[in-house]
Design goal:
The protein contains five helices and six strands. It has about 200 residues and is an alpha+beta fold. The chain has a six-stranded antiparallel β-sheet, sandwiched between helices. The radius of gyration is 24 Å and the shape is globular.
């Protein structure tokens, strides 16, 4: 790695380290990290989808644009461009994502973006999620920009692998399970009653 690139990488790590070592709540730390990632990549939006089970990812953190939709959007592995990135573990870089055959038309994902760059978040060969960058312009990210995005994705993977974030993710999952278990389930004691006049039929002799 050239010295200039190495220095740039160290600056990124230092900035993200300062965010993660702050006294903020885990969700705030993730939001600040995504805002930093968005600005450094010169994107109009940055969003992080995290794997919550073997088949599904959830929008876990985002920069300002998607922030109000955190924990409200889920995507299955293989579904849309984000799901395709998770399935293949390959980068997708396109000028207009609406023209792609894997474009996912979901009302909650409606926006005016065109350029799309998605990078799988991987740590020790284990898929953690997908980092998504978007811009309003209709042009692909350049090779240099993709390289910066990969560096940011690698740094974000380290953050997602921390005990603090893993505990935070587990706490969210546990709360949802408790809400589900607390729902009252009805038990049928009888399939029904019949009210009316009974007529006895006797076999003819």
């Amino acid at each position: 790695m050239p010295q200039s690139a190495a220095n740039h990488f160290l600056k990124i790590l230092k900035s993200l380290h300062e965010i993660t070592e702050s006294n903020d709540e885990p969700q705030i730390k993730l939001q600040r990290s995504l805002q930093f990632i968005k600005e450094l990549s010169q994107s109009d939006s940055a969003a992080c989808f995290v794997l919550i089970d073997d088949k599904k990812m959830e929008l876990f953190a985002a920069s300002d644009y998607y922030r109000h939709k955190e924990h409200k959007i889920s995507i299955r592995i293989g579904e849309g461009l984000v799901g395709e990135t998770a399935l293949t573990r390959r980068i997708i870089n396109i000028a207009d994502y609406r023209a792609h055959p894997k474009f996912l038309n979901k009302p909650e994902l409606e926006n005016d973006f065109h350029a799309f760059l998605s990078i799988p978040l991987i740590r020790w060969s284990r898929l953690l999620g997908v980092l998504v960058f978007q811009r309003f312009v209709t042009e692909e990210y350049t090779p240099d920009e993709v390289e910066i995005a990969e560096t940011l994705a690698m740094s974000l993977s380290d953050i997602l692998s921390s005990d603090e974030i893993n505990n935070y993710k587990d706490s969210i999952t546990e709360k949802r399970s408790q809400v589900k278990d607390d729902r009252i389930k009805g038990l049928s004691l009888s399939k029904g009653y019949g009210i009316g006049q009974a007529v006895i039929h006797r076999r003819r002799q």
